[in-house]
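Researcher: Next sequence.
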Amino acid sequence: MKSVHPLVKPSDSISIPGLEGTWEEEDSRWTFIRSAEGNEQIKAIMEDIDLSHDGPGYLTLIESIEETRIDSMLFRSTFVKLNGEVYMDLYPLSLVSSPAQYKNQGLFAATTFIDFHLVPVHTFSKIKKSDNELDILLFKDSWINDLIEKDRVRVKHEKTEDGVLLTASTDELQKFVKKYGSMEEAYDSPASLEKIE
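Model: Next structure:
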């Protein structure tokens, strides 16, 4: 589910005890960072990023792990509790600023002309965390598209070549998630990660 506006208001944003660190599954690695202590590369990045912009937030490095290469992208993640469930809002940082210094450190690919035509969006997911396990359940684009096509929901949106882009306000998005967030069919199969450090 892609949205112009965030799901999390600064006043609603929460921190997740024990989330900091690196979590991994077979083909991806997620690293959640709140403090850059001891890591000069991350410290340089965090000095340019206001993680408190949307309340308590995390610098989140998501890596796609393959045998031949590793692709990575930086996000700001914020969390909110709605109807007793925890939801994550991811917002890409590499498309926001794409600083050359980060690219030189190997965190991003070189900027191309196409990068200037890409607009960052918020994506939402439900998370379930235990001590050493983290499940991330992304909302299915096909699910929201189907609801809108069948006129079963009224949420502000625009139809684009790539599907539906939500344009509803944060308050409207939270009402939508409170109403539909418990539906199992709303989510893709979870990414099940295990804490490795």
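Model: The first strand starts at residue 2 and ends at 3. Helices lie at 40-47, 100-104, 141-149, 170-180.
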